[in-house]
Specification:
heterodimer; A: about 240 residues; alpha/beta; Rossmann fold; 2 domains; six-stranded mixed beta sheet; 8 helices; 10 strands; about 25% strand; B: about 525 residues; mainly alpha; MetI-like fold; 21 helices; about 75% helix; globular
Chain lengths: ~240, ~525
């Protein structure tokens, strides 16, 4: 479903070290991306979302190139580690912005927002502001917005890094269901190998702007003989 | 990709307009320095005793004013920092913010009311000259310096105070090892800022200078253009003023410690001895009286003066409307231009082009080094051969005041706008939240407070301006500050006091109104 082909990018200050990515994610799959800080995990997500412009290569969704589409028109939803919600707007409005930024919602759209909040267990909190919620609840709101946006690609950029292990596991289950039910292709960037184990059948290891391994998660974490992987796993 | 195009075009237009308003007059001045009889490099002017005297007095009064403001401010700020339980602390600190909003000519009336003939502490005729200038400058700058220095005590880690106690440090040792190292970080920047403000002070010197003996470069430029009809002399004076300001600004920039507009004024918690506590109380009260007395005295004088007679004058109302018109439009243009520049610099920052972003901010603030009188005199000599500058008074005064307000807009709005952009720009892009929707749902709720502050600051500054309006104004187009100056010139002191009170009320109302209406009750 999602294919990244020879996608290249270099930051202006590091023109000599071009990053290059090749991978594929099936519908209903969450592919985890792990690797050291600065290795290019978030850069890959930013390229897919359109925040960065690749110097070469393709991003294909069902065979159709999307790398030249504008950010807003890409079939992508993204959840960051923080600042996913506007602090001065209540939960309902934060989610509704995902449907229509002018907030002129039809009856069906308003129902969809209410349903999404309900599915994420947030119905009773919809008039609260983000500051009144826990970290886990805030990320649930961001996921509710993903649900109403109905985009095919989901990018999770260390979305659960600020949460404790139990809450992370709980939200990963929520994401798995969301991706499965909506047939999405998801990429999960995490610093925690345990997250990859919980979320993904397959995991890619990125190092110095390249995917150096893409294997079954359990194999990568337990049996990989690659020195970069062993060093990384030894350090986390 | 962070798209910069529309923002770049808008910011480019603002910068071009800024260059036109600031650089064209300077170019005009430089060009005129080559007029027949005054060849470039001609040293006759530099050898003039008058110019040498003006230059010396400008620097001397600025140096004295700076020392008299900043040195006591260190003691007062320390007293405020250590005396967190002082009952009137909050009220006094708010009072200390007043001189930021009070027009210079109003402060002058307050100083005259206290220290002038028949005042509470009469200095008689000796008020006019260096004494009056110093009193007015200290009235403005001592509270400003206190507010800028006070946050330095906040930078001392609480553990350091505890360590000091554990090591039995006395007050002197605490000062030497804890407080002075924190203070000296900010002190040079604050000293240079106050020096620059006093060097470019116009209204105070014009009204309290008392004659040619106590004339500064700013006032001499004005006199050359309006009374001596000697543009060439004005050119030399303006270039001299510009050179000194540029030099001070370069030194200030190298220090990299420009104070913020909105600052934390909390106290520190450390036990202090009873005698020290008494001294602190005395210092705070004395400074409170020094700052409050001129305003209180002026209020009493104005209420006992020809209040109804002045209010019944049509000229007063015309001046009031003109003042309001100039203040509000200057604020709107200034904040609009600042908004466009800051949006562009925030985009550059997010794209990792921090040096370029810094340059854009700096370009917006560069007018800080160019005194309004220099821009005004440049425009005066540039335009007067072609148009009747006095008929163009409103656009010229609004444009110059809008430009002069830009550094305040950049400093008060910039940090919040940049933070907002860094946090939410990608999210907005992915949600297609742009244009009006982005302003309505994101920028207005989160930025209305600094927006309100920026508008209020620029409006208050423009409404209190006497420099530019004195150069271009006519009796028909006079603002309230110019009307006060004209009343003072006609020895109508009671009338001037009443007008000053009305200007003060207007300035505070507009400042408070804009801050509240635009900024909301608590902000987001």
């Amino acid at each position: 479903m999602l294919e990244i082909k020879q996608l290249e990018f270099a930051y202006a200050a590091e023109a000599a070290s071009t990053m290059q990515f090749n991978l594929g994610v099936a519908a209903g799959e969450i592919l985890s991306l792990i690797g050291p800080s600065g290795s290019g995990k978030s850069t890959l997500l930013n390229l897919i979302a359109g925040f960065l412009e690749p110097s070469a290569g393709q991003i294909l969704l069902d065979g159709i190139a999307i790398e030249t589409s504008s950010i807003a028109s890409r079939p992508v939803s993204i959840v960051f580690q923080q600042h996913n919600l506007f602090p001065h707007l209540d939960l309902y409005t934060n989610v509704a912005l995902g449907v229509d930024p002018s907030l002129r919602l039809s009856r069906e759209q308003a129902d969809a927002v209410a349903t999404a909040l309900d599915q994420l267990g947030l119905s009773d909190l919809q008039r609260r502001k983000p500051g009144e919620l826990s970290g886990g609840q805030r990320q649930r709101v961001a996921l509710a917005r993903v649900l109403v946006r109905k985009r095919r690609i989901l990018l999770l950029d260390e979305a659960f890094a600020a949460l404790g292990p139990a809450l992370r596991a709980e939200l990963i289950e929520v994401v798995k269901k969301l991706v499965h039910d909506n047939n999405m292709a998801a990429l999960l960037v995490s610093h925690q190998p345990r997250d990859a184990l919980l979320a993904s059948a397959r995991t890619a290891f990125i190092c110095a702007g390249k995917i150096v391994a893409l294997e079954q998660t359990a194999d990568l974490l337990d049996k990989s003989q690659l020195p970069q992987v062993r060093d990384y796993l030894g350090s986390v | 990709m962070v798209r910069l195009n529309s923002r770049a075009v808008a910011a480019g237009l603002v910068l071009a307009l800024l260059a036109l308003i600031v650089l064209a007059p300077i170019a005009g001045l430089l060009n005129l320095s080559g007029i027949p009889g005054y060849e470039p490099g001609d040293l006759r002017f530099w050898q003039s005793a008058y110019i040498r005297r003006v230059l010396f007095f400008s620097l001397w009064q600025a140096l004295l004013s700076m020392l008299c403001s900043v040195l006591p401010a260190i003691l007062v700020a320390r007293a405020f920092a250590l005396q967190g339980d002082f009952p009137l602390r909050g009220l006094l600190l708010r009072l200390f913010a007043l001189p930021l909003v009070v027009p210079a000519v109003v402060a002058v009336m307050g100083v005259v009311s206290v220290y002038g003939s028949g005042g509470w502490i009469s200095l008689g005729r000796s008020l006019y000259g260096i004494n009056g200038i110093l009193l007015a400058h200290v009235f403005f700058n001592l509270p400003l310096a206190v507010r800028l220095l006070l946050p330095q005590w906040q930078t001392i880690p609480p553990h350091h105070w505890q360590l000091g106690e554990q090591l039995s440090m006395n007050a002197w040792q605490r000062w030497r090892f804890l407080e002075w190292p924190a203070l000296r970080e900010a002190l040079p920047g604050v000293m240079l800022l106050v020096f620059m403000l006093c060097l470019t002070s116009f209204a105070v010197v014009l009204t309290l200078g008392g004659g040619p003996k106590s004339t500064t470069l700013e006032v001499a430029i004005y006199q050359s253009l309006r009374f001596d009809f000697d543009p060439a002399q004005a050119v030399v004076l303006a270039l001299l003023q510009l050179s000194i300001c540029t030099l001070v600004a370069i030194v200030t920039l190298r220090l990299q410690r420009l104070p913020e507009v909105e600052i934390a004024l909390d106290s520190v918690s450390t036990p202090i001895a009873v005698p020290q506590k008494r001294l602190n109380t005395l210092l705070i009260l004395a400074t409170g009286i020094f700052v409050g007395m001129p305003l209180l005295s002026m209020l009493i004088d104005a209420l006992g003066g020809p209040l109804w007679q002045v209010i019944g004058t049509p000229r007063l109302w015309r001046s009031l409307v003109t003042t309001l018109f100039i203040g509000l439009f200057a604020a709107l243009f200034s904040v609009g231009a600042g908004w466009l520049l800051l949006q562009y610099s925030a985009s550059l920052s997010l794209a990792g082009k921090t040096s370029k972003a810094h340059l854009v901010d700096l370009a917006g603030s560069i007018v800080y080094v160019v005194p309004p009188l220099v821009i005004g005199s440049g425009l005066f000599v540039l335009l007067s051969p072609h148009v009747d500058v006095f008929t163009w008074v409103y656009p010229i005064v609004i444009a110059i005041n809008a430009v002069m307000g830009l550094p305040f807009v950049i400093r008060s709005l910039g940090p919040a706008l940049r933070q907002n952009h860094a946090r939410y720009h990608y999210l907005c892009q992915s949600l297609a939240l742009r244009g009006w929707n982005r302003f309505r749902y994101l920028e207005w709720p989160l930025l209305r407070r600094p927006l309100g502050l920026a508008l209020a600051l620029v409006a208050a500054l423009a409404m209190g301006d006497l420099g530019v309006i004195a150069l271009f104004g006519t009796p028909h187009s006079a603002t309230l500050p110019l009307l006060i100056y004209q009343q003072l010139g006609a020895y109508m002191i009671p009338h001037a006091t009443v007008t000053a009170l009305l200007l003060l009320v207007l300035s505070l109302t507009v400042f408070w109104g804009l801050e509240r209406v635009i900024g909301g009750k608590t902000g987001a």
